[in-house]
């Protein structure tokens, strides 16, 4: 067995690579430890659970590059490398390490699938060769390295053609070329996106059924199919952007087995050891199928398959990589059968993507071969109608009014599902919709059933059977009330009097064939309850944060999971509710019981009633959880933490400012405006620029800085009525800082201040940040003092985040978040303090906790947090930093000094001092001499072009930034960021620095 | 209309009755955990007389077609499911599952909590059950000797080839025939009760088919069968496997609730490989009973360790409890047909590999 294993994580969350790799990575690390291995983890995503103290033995938040990982290998001398759990990032890195001879030099064995197999699976040309050998059909295609080769191919097979760059994730740089005019741009972007400058152009098979198989294989050659999945959206929409059902619904057994056998033959030929995803396309009118691609690693789909079936793919893949065979590993859900079987489902699964278009109103909503969703939700029920409805209820978003539904069908957009519902509502036939979309009639019929039920609820009296059927179809009481013209209370009472109650069933991998001690639960109205309330003196229900989206990422899953662990340590029985299949919180091994459900009042209430929950925890599931607090409290549900009137007093700007005034705590001046008219009037009392912020949003959605009357008018026009009141704040120049603290009403534990690099006005989630801060101790004292005053005034208990603006030596309060924030994992890990644990212990009134006498930690290392933008997926968006958050994830590097940490942050960029053509600086700056002498257009075409600096607001600036992003150039839209980059260049060497608090603390390396 | 599923000496479940469910129908209740393949299950003669519960809740999605039936007609006596799709969608579909069942007068119950039914079968064992619209049901003595009901009447020959196989019919599935025809065999299907005329067919090898019920229903033909087995290379599938065991002196026993589905892992003792298999059986060969016989264990079930296949120490005889012909289920064991043909063609070979 291996003694010491290096695990590579997937890095910051970007579109195409999200929290699913935290789930798989965490499972993998824990499985390694279970087998007695020492685990060294490199992952520069600080928000993850896998980078927490108690998952790996040592954690390096270091760049995921050959250079940096080689240094870690040199230092740690591991004997094996596990790269199959860290997505495309880790897989590519493993291939590079092999190519550069690092694996050989340090005698490092790559666990699981070999580099040769990875290349055969990932390199389009090698893969195509293998498919030909196996007689597995692939769409007519050609590997090209120039635009003219692509044109020749298109001339031969006809348009449209698909462009798929090699070795990229989430279809990055790819797309559908509909005609010759689109060819040049798409193909050259694709070539640039591919690290090996290679694109496969492919004949389009749009309209085919898209089917995926998740396969496991061990070194003995045993192959199993954990799950197959069918895309609601036919081929043409990236599978990450498709609604997906599991198991497949419209495949006969012959179809199913034909594709399964094809997948097995491919996975066996590739000699995969571990997990592998195989995507296939099937003609809806014949048995003709094509192999689309394989991913010889765990993936987003494998996370989904794990949650859909209860079969923990990443854990099994790790054990298989260590040399176990599947028939040697127990199935953890049954405890007495083995991993060498195929799960049988007795429910249906619907996965629904979560897109960022609510934050990017200017984005093009069309979907194609390039993934654009940031996250996803999953729903379980015993009817598809129910599962579809639950999935939509889990999205935690409002569907915009659709004006021209057919437009969303002609070229698919994120709103296609809702446009189809609209059309059906207006009497359109499923046949016509099928003709336009090629979506299987079976799925359209499901949607039609939902609409028919809407109609019945609106017209028929609420009979026993009607309510029963509506509940089977997933309608919430509130929806039934709305449609039938009753109040929600009336519907609830009627339903309860008819004894129609939500029942709970379990996911057991085997459709009840074997007895299973499973704690993985879903609700349904299709049958009887089969679980008992959990035992336990004290029971906690922890609300999760739902799908990953901009502004609410994996960091909230971290909080929820840490809260569960803390509660368990305190002897509580823990119950999790969440609906994000990518996360650790929805791993059934995390809480004592998992309810995989929409986070909706009705459902939370039914769980609370059933389990007799003592307290619901709303502070650890982001805005999603805290937004539900008031509704839950109104139903008399016991909440842990402060009453919602305190939350309201903190979040209602008027009340909050009034309180600060009585406390003598300075704040920026602001006015709450309930109507557009009020806003115009209020604006007159301020000097522009003004910060305009809507209410009830995540990540500063819709928040803008307006510089004049016209911009204000535009901003108000764009604001939805739901987002009133709007707060107009005087916009002050200054430095933004924030703190995460734990309070017990009187005392405050505040480890350190986080200092933002970019000036105020840039959303905190989008700015680079230093931790610990460089503030003077008098400044820190002031921040601490104000924090204490706020806490004691509101008698606040639990965890809280406060944002401040520092201007002319004064400290102004900007806002308060009465919940765990985005920065909690960073503070917890770098300062090595268990913030969430402390907060939980406050909330459950742990008598042994003494916040008052807790020492402020000494932080030995400097951390720099930086935002990561998925600009490659949103190339039409100007990523100019501002109050509306745009980053999808964050990274962090740790070092002895800030400069050294910055060096790591910017290590992917070339040194502008060494190559005059690296930078194009489009603003007046003292560093202008570093800028290229080429014209902007010329510069964009050269390979050296890496860095574009422009912080202007003009249309021209916007246009150029977008062009730069399209060409794969890094854009700095704030001078401060650029200056930080220049500052980093002073450092030559990067030394790996482990996070504090690792298991070997105090032990000398070597 | 409401209908009921009564488990003998057990629970009652309510659901929506199909039009053809009037007086009621009785049969042994079994559950199938595969998520596809309902048409194959309904037409598989091994299910003769049984009431089948589908654990996957959405059945009938891709309708019924003209290709996937394992025999000419529906073999089961009744069906229990959660949902029976009214509007199926598949290019081969010619009718909906409901129409198909109604057309052959097979009663079915929908909107049943099939998971609860499955758990009842699991915990209390396979038993007689009844589907009826009445509020009570008095159970009859169950029918036995199902194999006599499903075997054909006369020998029939299919295909042309140099190698002749006699397929002994205990209730054969079409897919076994097709697996042999695909391998260029000339196949004569012979009802097991006409085993005496096998020499007339002059076969090069025999395949013993699947079939319903208790293998001991065939007890009267065992001496005759042993003579045939001593003479010809033989491959037994499911019931065929069980009767081979009985013929050579081993014993069979009933499982508490059988194996039915498409996900049963089987380990090959000879190669050490594990593969997934399609299964449908209530009875198994008792492992201890092999002692002193000329049969050896070749395959076993990874989950419960039960015997899944045998090989003869000195003769060209092999058998499997699962279904290498698939339909429904995985084709991972299809290679057994090739192995058998190779074995049968080898002069002086034997099945036993040490």
Automatic annotation (TrEMBL), chain A:
What processes does the entry annotate via GO biological process terms? glutamine metabolic process; L-arginine biosynthetic process; pyrimidine nucleotide biosynthetic process
Give the record's keywords alphabetically.
Answer: Amino-acid biosynthesis, Arginine biosynthesis, ATP-binding, Ligase, Magnesium, Manganese, Metal-binding, Nucleotide-binding, Pyrimidine biosynthesis, Repeat
An annotated Gene Ontology molecular function: carbamoyl-phosphate synthase (glutamine-hydrolyzing) activity
Instruction: Identify one Gene Ontology CC term for this UniProt entry.
Output: cytoplasm
Domain named ATP-grasp is located at: 128-322, 657-844
Name the reaction it catalyses: hydrogencarbonate + L-glutamine + 2 ATP + H2O = carbamoyl phosphate + L-glutamate + 2 ADP + phosphate + 2 H(+); hydrogencarbonate + NH4(+) + 2 ATP = carbamoyl phosphate + 2 ADP + phosphate + 2 H(+)
**Does Heme count among this protein's keywords?**
no
Cofactor(s) needed by this chain? Mn(2+)
Q: Which domain of life is it from?
A: Bacteria
InterPro entries with a match to the protein in the record: ATP-grasp (IPR011761), CarbamoylP_synth_lsu_oligo_sf (IPR036897), CPAse_ATP-bd (IPR005479), CPSase_dom (IPR005483), CPSase_lsu (IPR006275), CPSase_lsu_oligo (IPR005480), CPSase_preATP-grasp (IPR058047), PreATP-grasp_dom_sf (IPR016185)
Query: Sorted alphabetically, which SUPFAM superfamilies does this protein's record hold?
Result: Carbamoyl phosphate synthetase, large subunit connection domain, Glutathione synthetase ATP-binding domain-like, PreATP-grasp domain
Record family assignment:
Belongs to the CarB family.
> Under which name does UniProt file this protein?
Carbamoyl-phosphate synthase large subunit
Q: Which organism is it from?
A: Halobacillus dabanensis
Where is the organism placed in the taxonomic lineage, from the top? Bacteria, Bacillati, Bacillota, Bacilli, Bacillales
Automatic annotation (TrEMBL), chain B:
On whether Ligase is a keyword of this UniProt record, the answer is yes
Alphabetized Pfam families for the sequence: CPSase_sm_chain, GATase
Query: Cross-referenced InterPro entries, in alphabetical order?
Result: Anth_synth/Amidotransfase, CarbamoylP_synth_ssu, CarbamoylP_synth_ssu_N, CarbP_synth_ssu_N_sf, Class_I_gatase-like, CPSase_GATase1, GATASE
On whether ATP-binding is a keyword of this UniProt record, the answer is yes
The protein's GO terms of the molecular function aspect are:
ATP binding; carbamoyl-phosphate synthase (glutamine-hydrolyzing) activity; glutaminase activity
What PANTHER family does UniProt report for this protein, alphabetically?
Answer: CARBAMOYL-PHOSPHATE SYNTHASE SMALL CHAIN, MULTIFUNCTIONAL TRYPTOPHAN BIOSYNTHESIS PROTEIN-RELATED
Described by its record, this protein's role is as follows:
Small subunit of the glutamine-dependent carbamoyl phosphate synthetase (CPSase). CPSase catalyzes the formation of carbamoyl phosphate from the ammonia moiety of glutamine, carbonate, and phosphate donated by ATP, constituting the first step of 2 biosynthetic pathways, one leading to arginine and/or urea and the other to pyrimidine nucleotides. The small subunit (glutamine amidotransferase) binds and cleaves glutamine to supply the large subunit with the substrate ammonia.
The family classification in the record reads:
Belongs to the CarA family.
Name under which the protein is recorded: Carbamoyl phosphate synthase small chain
Protein source organism: Halobacillus dabanensis
